């Protein structure tokens, strides 16, 4: 149908317009539109996977008790590491 048409040659459709003002922009717009749809579909899939991952991890992670009136935690067995002291309120070692 169209063979080696230059920008300024008459359009192959017979409209009398130059190719650049007739079908040149319309043909490339279809390709870009398909690429845009592909990128949108990929982004939707990525967002769906991320949302599912966040939801799934939230369901699997136990909630820690942040209540300041929680029961004291006993120190682990054995000696304290050098320069450390056990905090039963926080449940871990602190620097002296």
From TrEMBL:
* Keyword field contains Membrane: yes
Q: Which residues cross the membrane?
A: 36-56
* Keywords attached to this entry: Membrane, Transmembrane, Transmembrane helix
Q: List the InterPro entries hit by this protein, alphabetically.
A: SEC_C_motif
Pfam families in the record: SEC-C (PF02810)
For region Disordered, the annotated ranges are 63-96
In Swiss-Prot or TrEMBL terms, this protein is called SEC-C metal-binding domain-containing protein
């Amino acid at each position: 149908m169209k063979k080696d048409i230059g920008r300024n040659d008459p359009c192959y459709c017979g409209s009398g317009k130059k190719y650049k003002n007739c079908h040149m922009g319309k043909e490339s717009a279809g390709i870009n539109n398909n690429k845009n749809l592909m990128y949108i579909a990929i982004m939707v899939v990525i967002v769906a996977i991320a949302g599912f991952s966040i939801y799934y991890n939230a369901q699997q992670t136990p909630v820690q008790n942040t209540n300041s009136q929680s029961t004291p935690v006993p120190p682990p067995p054995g000696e304290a590491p050098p320069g450390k002291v056990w905090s039963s309120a926080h449940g871990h070692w602190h620097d002296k």
